[in-house]
């Protein structure tokens, strides 16, 4: 099976979603880059598992460790130095082969090396397949601020092969589901012309998702990406509509930062952020009881439970204050406003403090 989606931006590109053999993926990438020098930036785990099947040439490879803490300036410089060592010029290409961390840091290196060279995304985790490999957000983190240094820089192509998911550990698969579920809560804002009923599809298809039934997984990736493309074509640089993709992220980034990226995967943190805003929206009568229940049940069905945090609201708010999304002393939240709809709200720190006190 092979599915092609088009991202219709100024620098248009294609996304291929397939379950083909890795030899087919290798051929596709080779033919796409046949006139270019290449540097593959590869996650250590992916290199161990797939370097032989993909016939990676060690000369063209830089291996990085996995995990958010690797998305740092030191590794960014390693990529730049390796590109220089290999003699990559403006005509050449970086290839990200790994999850969201590899994709973000490679994209950022591509956007700055020689003021910008091509890069390709080959996402290997569910999270990077459904979200981070598409849309051109690239970044590295500072110790206390996730994605503080970055750019909007679109890839030349995205090659998704769902066979990588067979070796993805359960925790990372669940993290990807966090971003998938996010799309179910924003579907009606995305401006996608066909109704996808992602909320219902995920409610009914939970077992097939956990079994990783190929057609279901391909369909989910396709649905999420169609929604994302629809948003990004309208607002590439997040001046308006694209902010809805940050549902759950205000609290998520604070939780990831306060726990030094060790306790929560990104998707788990996003889901805690979604529980948080759902509960608040319901308490303010912005959403109905039945939607609140259905939403909580959907998240529970996928194994997510709302947590009571032991971190103080003051500490979390002080991290939120430094978030890119904060401005004019206010903290931005994306809040459910109706079934499958959200809206942006800018709240004072006192109001955010009250959010933490909200009971159902
Ligand atoms: N992951 C959110 C975005 O690409 O805007």
Structure overview:
This protein has 360 residues and is α/β, with parallel strands linked by helices. It has two domains: 2-168, Rossmann fold, CATH 3.40.50.1970; 175-355, Dehydroquinate synthase-like, alpha domain (Up-down Bundle), CATH 1.20.1090.10. The chain is built from 14 helices and eleven strands. It has helices at residues 22-32, 44-50, 73-85, 100-112, 126-132, 170-184, 198-204, 206-210, 214-234, 249-258, 266-283, 289-301, 313-321, 349-356, and strands at 2-7, 13-18, 38-43, 61-64, 93-98, 118-123, 137-142, 145-152, 157-161, 331-338, 341-347. The chain has a seven-stranded mixed beta sheet, sandwiched between helices. Strands 7-8 form a two-stranded antiparallel sheet. Helix 2 links the parallel strand 3 (38-43) and strand 4 (61-64). Glycine binds at residues 131-132, 135, 137, 242, 245.
How many whole angstroms does the radius of gyration measure?
A: 20 Å
Number of strands: 11
| CATH architect. name of the largest domain | Up-down Bundle
Count structural domains: 2
Overall body shape: globular
Q: Tell me the β content.
A: 15-25%
**Uncertain segments:** none
DSSP helix fraction? 40-55%
CATH class of the largest domain: Mainly Alpha
Mean pLDDT: 95
What is bound: which ligands?
A: glycine
Q: Give the SSE string.
A: EEHEHEHEHEHEEEHHHHHHHHEEH
């Amino acid at each position: 099976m092979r599915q092609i989606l088009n991202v219709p931006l100024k620098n248009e590109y294609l996304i291929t979603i397939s379950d083909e053999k890795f030899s087919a993926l290798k051929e596709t990438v080779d033919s796409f880059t046949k006139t270019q020098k290449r540097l593959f930036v590869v996650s250590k785990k992916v290199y161990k598992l797939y370097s032989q099947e993909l016939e990676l040439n060690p000369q063209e490879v830089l291996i990085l460790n996995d995990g958010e803490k690797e998305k740092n300036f030191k590794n960014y410089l390693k990529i730049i130095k390796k590109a220089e060592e290999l003699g990559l010029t403006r005509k050449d290409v970086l290839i990200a082969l790994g999850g969201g961390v590899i994709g973000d840091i490679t994209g950022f290196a591509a956007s700055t090396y020689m003021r910008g060279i091509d890069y390709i995304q080959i996402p290997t985790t569910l999270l990077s397949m459904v979200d981070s490999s598409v849309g051109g957000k690239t970044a590295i983190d500072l110790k206390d601020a996730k994605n503080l240094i970055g750019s909007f820089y679109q890839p030349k192509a995205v090659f998704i092969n769902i066979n990588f998911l067979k070796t993805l550990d359960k925790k990372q698969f669940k993290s990807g589901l966090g971003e998938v579920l996010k799309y179910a809560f924003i579907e009606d804002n995305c401006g996608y012309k066909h109704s996808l009923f992602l909320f219902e599809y995920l409610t009914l298809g939970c077992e097939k998702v956990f079994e990783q039934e190929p057609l279901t997984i391909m369909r989910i990736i396709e649905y999420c990406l169609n929604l994302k493309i629809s948003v990004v074509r309208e607002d590439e640089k997040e001046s308006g509509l694209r902010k809805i993709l940050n549902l759950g992220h205000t609290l998520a980034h604070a939780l990831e930062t306060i726990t030094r990226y060790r306790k929560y995967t990104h998707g788990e943190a996003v889901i805690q952020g979604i529980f948080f805003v759902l509960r608040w929206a319901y308490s303010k009568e912005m959403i109905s009881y039945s939607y609140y229940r259905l939403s909580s049940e959907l998240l529970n069905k996928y194994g997510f439970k709302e947590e009571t945090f032991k971190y103080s609201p003051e500490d979390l708010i002080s991290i939120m204050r430094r978030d890119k999304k904060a401005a004019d002393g206010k903290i931005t939240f994306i809040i459910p406003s109706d079934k499958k709809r959200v809206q942006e709200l800018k709240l004072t720190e006192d109001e955010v403090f009250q959010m933490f006190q909200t009971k159902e």
